[in-house]
Design a protein that fits this description.
By secondary structure, this protein is of the alpha/beta class. It has two domains: 7-224, DHBP synthase (Alpha-Beta Complex); 240-335, Threonylcarbamoyl-AMP synthase, C-terminal domain (Rossmann fold, 3-Layer(aba) Sandwich). It has helices at 18-29, 51-61, 79-82, 87-96, 113-116, 130-139, 159-166, 205-212, 221-224, 249-262, 291-306, 324-335; strands spanning 7-10, 34-36, 43-47, 70-72, 101-106, 121-125, 143-144, 172-175, 186-189, 196-199, 240-244, 266-270, 283-286, 312-316. The strands form two sheets. Strands 1-8-2-3-7-4-6-5-9-10 form a ten-stranded mixed beta sheet, with helices on both faces. Strands 11-14-12-13 form a four-stranded parallel beta sheet, sandwiched between helices. α1 (18-29) packs across α6. The longest helix is centred in the last third of the chain and has 16 residues, at 291-306. The two termini are 21 Å apart.
Length: 344
């Protein structure tokens, strides 16, 4: 793949410039890739019905071919083009779209195999971001948009993250500032009753159950294959991630001490714990506030610590309630010691 000039164009997140949107839409309609912001993370957009453009996504990202894509739509009128819609899905759409909920639905014949990894289902969502919606509306077709990162790295929540990963590989990045949520969408399989969460994300289980009742507890292996971000190790910086799930400062201090015995360059990502003492040579980043604040800043913090050339990053876990379930899912995958990395 030949290198291209990558332009970064600033765009207002609430009142996007029509000229910038038109330029980005023209590139996508011509089969090219454009990175753009959503409320979750930055996406790498391509014409969702163009197999050649979809193939470019896999090449640019280094994405495994068995990893399905999510098709993004801007209006409910676009949904029947790509998916059959069970009654339950209508209720979920009314409750959560636009927003960070991806639905797994039966696909139509219009959807290329490359969008679904050859499955009979398709992943669809409507993003809650003015720039994303304006772009998809201008393209007038569903836009496939996995996270705009290289293989295995933390998902990008700023245009700079995208530029660092994909410079020379894509022609345009629309820069609307930091992503509001900072974690990918929840993926819900709506082809079964009761439905089941395949990937936790920006919409928590409790909110979904308030709309459709109790969800299935555990997804089968076959169901997991219908969603991106459910296999292998990913969301990972280059440094080894050591996750401390014990919410005690002593456990975190012990993990740091153990890391220092094996590695000279150690960093620590903190949230609420306040260890009595950490060696001065340990690079410390703290994300204060709520679990939502921790989620929003997580990937950016991992990338910043990785930029220091660390060998190990010790990360504080959070309680697995609400959005904390998605945070811990990402951290466990980032810390996984086995399996090859996967792009999400």
């Amino acid at each position: 793949m030949g290198e291209v000039i990558t332009r970064v164009v600033a765009i207002d997140p609430t009142r996007p410039d029509p000229a910038a949107i038109a330029e980005a839409a023209a590139l996508i309609c011509a089969g090219q890739l454009v990175a753009f912001p959503t409320e979750t993370v930055y996406g790498l957009g391509a014409d969702g019905l163009n197999p050649i453009a979809l193939g470019r996504i896999y090449t640019v990202k280094g994405r495994p071919p068995d990893n399905p894509l999510i098709l993004h739509i801007a209006s409910l009128e676009q949904l029947p083009l790509v998916a059959d819609i069970p009654e339950m899905a209508h209720r979920l759409v009314q409750a959560f779209w636009p927003g960070p909920l991806t639905l797994i639905l039966p696909r139509t014949s219009c959807v290329p195999d490359l969008a679904t990894a050859g499955l009979t289902t398709v992943a669809v969502r409507m993003p809650d971001h003015h720039v994303a919606l304006a772009l998809i509306d201008a393209v007038e077709r569903p836009v496939a948009a996995p996270s705009a990162n290289r293989s295995g790295l933390p998902s990008p929540t700023t245009a700079q993250h995208v530029f660092n990963d994909l410079r020379g590989r894509i022609p345009l990045i629309l820069d609307a500032g930091s992503s509001r949520i900072g974690l990918e969408s929840t993926v819900l399989d709506a082809t079964c009753l009761p439905p089941v969460i395949l990937r936790p994300g920006g919409i928590c289980r409790e909110a979904i159950e308030a709309v459709v009742g109790p969800l299935q507890e555990i997804a089968s292996v076959a169901q997991q294959r219908r969603s991106p971000g459910t296999r292998y190790r990913h969301y990972s910086p280059k440094a080894r991630v050591l996750l401390v799930e014990d919410s005690q400062a002593e456990a975190l201090q012990a993990a740091v001490a153990n890391a220092l015995q094996q590695s000279a360059r150690v960093g620590c990502l903190l949230h609420r714990l306040k260890p009595d003492h950490l060696p001065a040579l340990v690079a410390i980043t703290r994300i204060r506030g709520s679990v939502a604040d921790y989620a929003q800043g997580l990937f950016a913090a991992l990338r910043a610590l990785d930029g220091l050339g660390l060998e190990v990053i010790v990360v504080e876990g959070v309680e697995e309630q609400g959005l904390g379930v998605a945070v811990m899912d990402r951290l466990r995958r980032a810390a996984s010691p086995s399996s090859p990395p996967e792009v999400t």
